[in-house]
Amino acid sequence: MDEPLVERMRAYGETVFAEMSRLAAETGAINLGQGFPDTDGPRPLIEAAAGRIRDGVNQYPPGPGRPELRTAVAADRAERFGLEYDPAGEVYITVGATAGIAASVLATVEPGDEVVLFEPMYDSYAAVVSLAGGVRRPVPLRPGPDGRFTFDPAELRAAVGPRTRMVVVNSPHNPTGTVLTRAELEEIAAVCREHDLIALTDEVYEHLLFDGAEHVPLAALPGMRERTIAVSSVGKTFSVTAWKTGWVMGPAPLVRAVQTVNQFLTFSANGALQLAVAEAITGEREWVRGQRDALQAKRDRLSEGLDRAGFGVLRPQGTYFVMADVRPLGFEDGLELARALPHSAGVACVPAQVLYDRVEEGRHLVRFAFCKRDEVLDDAAGRLVRAFAS
Ligand SMILES: *Cc1c(COP(=O)(O)O)cnc(C)c1O
């Protein structure tokens, strides 16, 4: 048979995340590549889900999601940000943020439409824009002298043209850890309003904020609620990345568009998990705060180890990733270092360059995940120090 994969997806082979996890397994390296916690989420959340399954919540929930969860999500948004969404037509439950993002792009981007994205970018964005037949217009995030990544508003404006349909905004940002400020978001909002663009916001790290950083939803800015599809999910917030329970929030016409596509992708998401999450959104706030504080300490712990090993550490304000520059170690290419590291040091990371359209922008950067137990982070740091600094 000829190549069975459609032409527009041929650039997407095995992801480097899978390659690095496989390398870690083969070499017995500590895997700080793929980002998933090595401890469980809050016990009551897990017990509630198990109880719901035992109690027989095992058939299709409504396509848009269980009303209990849609109501809880809307109430939480209203309370924290003053953003009002009608649970009946403006909140829609998806199989993780991934499905919400995919359905949003497939529902609104015509073949040939352009989508502006900040790079480095979460890997699913590039693939789903290709799947829709859209064209990516990347805007680089670069670290300033303080190590914080941000964009140049002139480069954002230069990326927008007559075919631009959408801007994708991920804050807190994976992999750089940047939490966009209100002023930065206002630059993006102004461009969206002037060019009548749809904003797709990925807010899955909305609770993982350090040093008092504040999460501002783009939809909260003037003129933005009516044009924004906001996506979030439970995986990062509650350390349950396997649960794949997320949501899309927006004005009814946009949410209807997403629903039209998503009903044929997954139709609905796991109902028992939805009921458990509906309670945890308010019931586990204290746990989420504790988790955030623990992650801030883990950031410091791993950053200090990377620094001692000789990496150029670019300190994140949120998420559970830290970016590191490999050039101080005498390397030019993060991919080369990431492929060697499991063998030479017994630690796996991911090369950030695979998250860029313009590879040169991120050639020298690698990403480490710090959502791991302290002893694992200390072990990894010790291995890196021994490999490079002694
Ligand atoms: C993990 C992650 C997702 C995927 O979320 P799910 O709810 O697991 O589908 C989406 N966006 C970013 C930036 C992520 O890091």
Describe it for me?
By secondary structure, the chain is of the alpha/beta class. 41% of the residues lie in helices and 16% in strands. Strands 2-10-9-8-7-3-4 form a 7-stranded mixed β-sheet, sandwiched between helices. Strands 11-12-15-14 form a 4-stranded antiparallel β-sheet. Strand 7, helix 7 and strand 8 (198-202) form a beta-alpha-beta unit. The radius of gyration is 21 Å and the shape is globular. The termini are far apart. The model has no long low-confidence stretch (mean pLDDT 97). Pyridoxal-5'-phosphate binds next to helix 4.
Topology:
Elements: H1 16-27, E1 30-31, H2 43-54, H3 67-81, E2 91-94, H4 96-108, E3 114-119, H5 123-131, E4 135-140, E5 142-143, E6 149-150, H6 153-159, E7 164-170, H7 182-195, E8 198-202, E9 228-233, E10 246-249, H8 252-265, H9 271-283, H10 285-309, E11 312-314, E12 321-325, H11 334-344, E13 347-348, E14 350-351, E15 365-369, H12 374-388
Parallel strand pairs: 1-13, 3-4, 3-7, 7-8, 8-9
Antiparallel strand pairs: 2-10, 5-6, 9-10, 11-12, 12-15, 14-15
The structure holds pyridoxal-5'-phosphate.
The site of pyridoxal-5'-phosphate has 13 residues, from helix 4.
